[in-house]
């Protein structure tokens, strides 16, 4: 089975991280892959470790005529069985040919960008329902969730971020954008004594979030640690993982927390509310309700039996639904079925 993966996303982001994870997992499963991406040094380093041939293309949008031509030539030379395109810009550039074009969606995107696709893979059942509701053929829409790998790195030393060993570490893994609700976590922090908030990510709201932490009087208990590639080490060092998003179609961090055995608290936004069984494998709080978030943190910290139960049930969900083995099997089965 020969797969050509096409990713035109940015330097950082949840979909971009999962693209790298899936490429590595498909390689471990024995699929032959070639990859076309924008050139970012960190991604080049990750993909070189996987061992797949990589072609760099600009993916500049509708006025970029060179990228589709180069992509067509690459496909004609490599002759894949499947081309897997990630999100709008990549899927718009997919060439037609004897191969099968598959678009991978992680959000409620405009389907005009997917006219060159034969099939769509949606990472939630609700996104699958959305595309079918927009007249995409039922038999060509497929739900396959994400997974999160675990590496063997130890927990990161808290001293790296000026954090005492006995502190309650709250971890947010997110792009610094208003939809991620990081300001909600900052407001909740005022009510949680002895807690330090690690914010792992970067983005346009960095300066405003720093200013907010100062105005709220919590800046001494907030660590802006930037975009990180060592999420396993961060999760292993955290006491609670927070997903305070105002809008989240899926929520990769939910799977990350479950996989790494970290108690999870998430907003009841679209993705997490579909994934999390409230009180069983995580706690949900109403979107933007920072008092409810702080109450949930206190509940977990004060009840180790509850925390252990959330962790155990989260790991069970991963084993049955969101493990690398389960997800890769679904991708491989789909590829084999649609190529006949």
What does this structure look like?
This protein has a seven-stranded parallel sheet, with helices on both faces. The protein has a six-stranded parallel sheet with strand order 10-9-8-11-12-13, sandwiched between helices. Helix 1 packs parallel to helix 2 (41-50) and helix 12 (304-322) packs parallel to helix 13. The model has no long low-confidence stretch (mean pLDDT 95). It has 13 helices and 13 strands. It has 340 residues and is α/β, with parallel strands linked by helices. The longest helix is centred in the C-terminal third of the chain and has 19 residues, at 304-322. Helix 1 links the parallel strand 1 (2-7) and strand 2. 41% of the residues lie in helices and 17% in strands. It has two domains: 2-147 and 323-339, 3-Layer(aba) Sandwich (Rossmann fold); 158-321, Rossmann fold, CATH 3.40.50.
Structure summary:
This protein is of the alpha/beta class.
User: Which oligomerization state do the chains in this entry correspond to?
Assistant: single chain
**What is the CATH class designation of the largest domain?**
Alpha Beta
Considering the protein shown, what is the CATH homologous superfamily of the largest domain? Glycogen Phosphorylase B
Basic shape:
globular
Please state the second-level CATH architecture of the largest domain: 3-Layer(aba) Sandwich
Radius of gyration: 21 Å
Q: Order of helices and strands, N to C?
A: EHEHEHEHEEHEEHEHEHEHEHEHHH
CATH topology of the largest domain: Rossmann fold
How many separate domains make up the residues? Answer: 2
| Count of helical stretches | 13
């Amino acid at each position: 089975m020969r797969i050509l993966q096409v990713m035109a996303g940015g330097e950082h982001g949840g979909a971009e991280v999962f693209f790298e994870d899936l490429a590595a997992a498909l390689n471990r499963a024995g699929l032959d892959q070639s990859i076309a991406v924008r050139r970012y040094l960190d991604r080049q380093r990750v993909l070189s470790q996987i061992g797949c041939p990589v072609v760099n293309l600009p993916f500049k949008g509708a006025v970029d005529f060179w990228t589709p031509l180069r992509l067509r030539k690459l496909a004609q030379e490599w002759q894949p069985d499947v081309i897997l395109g990630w999100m709008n810009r990549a899927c718009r550039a997919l060439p037609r040919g004897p191969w099968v074009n598959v678009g991978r969606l992680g959000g409620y995107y405009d389907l005009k960008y997917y006219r060159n696709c034969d099939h769509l893979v949606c990472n939630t059942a609700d996104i699958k329902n959305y595309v079918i509701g927009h007249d995409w053929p039922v038999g060509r829409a497929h739900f396959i969730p994400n997974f999160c790998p675990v590496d063997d790195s130890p927990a990161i030393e808290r001293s790296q971020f000026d954090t005492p060993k006995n502190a309650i570490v709250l971890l947010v893994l997110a792009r610094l954008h208003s939809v991620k609700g990081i300001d909600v976590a900052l407001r909740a922090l005022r009510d949680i004594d002895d807690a330090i908030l690690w914010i792992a990510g970067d983005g346009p709201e960095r300066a405003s979030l720093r200013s907010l932490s100062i105005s709220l009087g919590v800046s001494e208990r907030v660590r802006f640690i930037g975009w990180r590639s060592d999420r396993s080490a961060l999760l292993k060092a955290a006491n609670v993982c927070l997903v305070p998003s105002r809008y989240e179609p899926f929520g990769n961090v939910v799977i990350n927390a479950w996989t790494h055995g970290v108690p999870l608290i998430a907003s009841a936004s679209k993705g997490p509310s579909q994934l999390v069984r409230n009180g069983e494998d995580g706690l949900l709080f109403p979107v933007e309700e920072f008092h409810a978030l702080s109450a949930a943190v206190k509940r977990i910290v004060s009840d180790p039996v509850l925390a252990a139960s959330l962790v155990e049930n989260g790991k069970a969900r991963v084993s049955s639904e969101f493990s690398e083995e389960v997800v890769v099997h679904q991708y491989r089965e789909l590829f084999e079925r649609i190529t006949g």
